[in-house]
Amino acid sequence: MTLLSRHRRHLGVLVAGLFGFLLLSNLIPDPFASGQWRMQIPDHFTWSQKLNYKFRNIGTYIQDNFGFRATFPVLRRDLREALHSPDSRPFYAGRDGQLFWGREQAPAQSAGALVRAANVERFVAMVGEMQRVLAPRGTRIVVAIPPNAQSVELEALPAWYEALAYPTTEYDLALAGLKAEGVTAVDLRPVLKASPRPRYLMTDTHWNSRSSVLAFNAVMAAAGHEDWQVDPAEVLGPPAPAARGDLLRTTRLPPRVKEEDMPFTIKDRAGPPRFDAALRHHNEHVAFKSLAYDYAPTGLRVLIMGDSFTGAVWPRLFLKGDVSVAAWMHGSRRVTGSCDFDFDDVKRFAPDLIIMARTERFFPCYGDDWPTGLPRPWTHAVPNNVAP
Questions:
Q1: Contact between 179 and 197 (Cβ < 8 Å)
Q2: Residue 194, exposed/middle/buried by CB under 10 A (0-12, 13-18, 19+)?
Q3: What is the CA radius of gyration of the chain?
């Protein structure tokens, strides 16, 4: 007589088989996976840097491409749709299938439902103090905040977004504060809205190539260098299929909309990217190293303090500018944004023009973050959002 009844033995075999299948599935490529790395490896990486990146990220690559981790989210989505059940994901689809990022409170921020006045005030105070320190050196600052897609692609937003109507946003508050500080700032929202759709990638959090160039031109005009603007037709090719965006890569879902973009065809005036001894500040992400591009023996020194919206392209767009070097450094130490960059690096680089281009959802200064080497306008006051 066996210790287990027949139905329990069958159940045990079924459970063992299920666990065995799950273990073996980690060796089977997922048929819905793309075989891509989550972030495109920069072209300027050496073979050893590329190998190091792959070694450090092999876990996420296996996660994305094995173990049916792309198939299960698709089945989950289809099942919810069949049952007419609301979904909860870090992104949501608009009226024409365009995807929007739903985390970091981006929807509420763009609609004006969330206004963190103290954090915006801290950002404004930081830029104002930077200008006070650097103005005697002849440095000019221009602020240009790349908007959230929700702040620009209004026609594509889902119907429920129409119920959100607030008079003031954090973007508006920042522009008013910077004006009071005497800092030049350009509102990129109407600039991009005036262009045809789509202005942002359909499956990605970032703007498309045309919007990047239009925003750059708006910054050059605000900086008083209208003749430095570039014709998009000179630096962009015809629309072509593009890789699926970060919203899909991170969630491992297949695309439902066609992704296109205009590839850059820049005929570089600048030399290859290089490290600059003055720019020692680097973001925590391996792809966001501070880089400099040499243009000419003489001319203005430009420093762009931004993020992924500007890093790969804007330093290369000074095709018509009287520029000797254009450098880029991340505006924070964390990928998700902070106000703790190294201001000593900025002073060592000695730029004639600084372009502060922190993305909308990351531009407010949180907690007690403050740039290293930048004097605080308040010496004895309790910092904003910090309890005494």
A1: no
A2: exposed
A3: 24
Round to whole Å and give the CA distance between 154 and 377. 38
pLDDT category at 126 given cuts 50, 70, 90 is very high
pLDDT at 388: 44
Phi and psi for 77 in degrees, rounded to 5?
Answer: -65, -45
Closest CA to 289 of 273, 267, 302: 273
Q: Percent of the chain scored above 70 by pLDDT?
A: 87
Q: Is 365 within 8 Å of 151 (Cβ atoms)?
A: no
Amino acid identity for residue 362 in this structure: F
pLDDT at 89 exceeding the cut of 70 = no
Say how many Å lie between the first and final Cα of the chain, rounded.
73
- What's the chain's length in residues? 388
**C-alpha dihedral, 128 to 218 to 98 to 113, nearest 10°:** 30
CA gap 161, 113 in Å, rounded: 11
Other CB atoms within 10 A of residue 357 CB: 25
- Vertex 218, ends 216 and 221: CA angle to 5°? 110
Q: How many angstroms separate the CA atoms of 357 and 312, rounded?
A: 13
pTM for this structure? 0.79
Q: Tell me the two tokens of residue 80.
A: 């919810």
Count Cβ atoms within 10 A of the Cβ of residue 292 and give its class: 0-12 exposed, 13-18 middle, 19 or more buried.
Answer: buried
Lowest mean pLDDT across 74-83, 177-186, 251-260, 336-345:
74-83
DSSP 8-class letter at 372? B
164 Cβ contact partners less than 8 Å away, ≥ 6 residues apart: 107, 108, 111, 112, 113
Mean pLDDT of 68-91: 66
- In the predicted structure, residue 379 carries a pLDDT above the cut 80: no
Phi and psi at residue 304, in whole multiples of 5°? -100, 125
d(CA 70, CA 369): 38
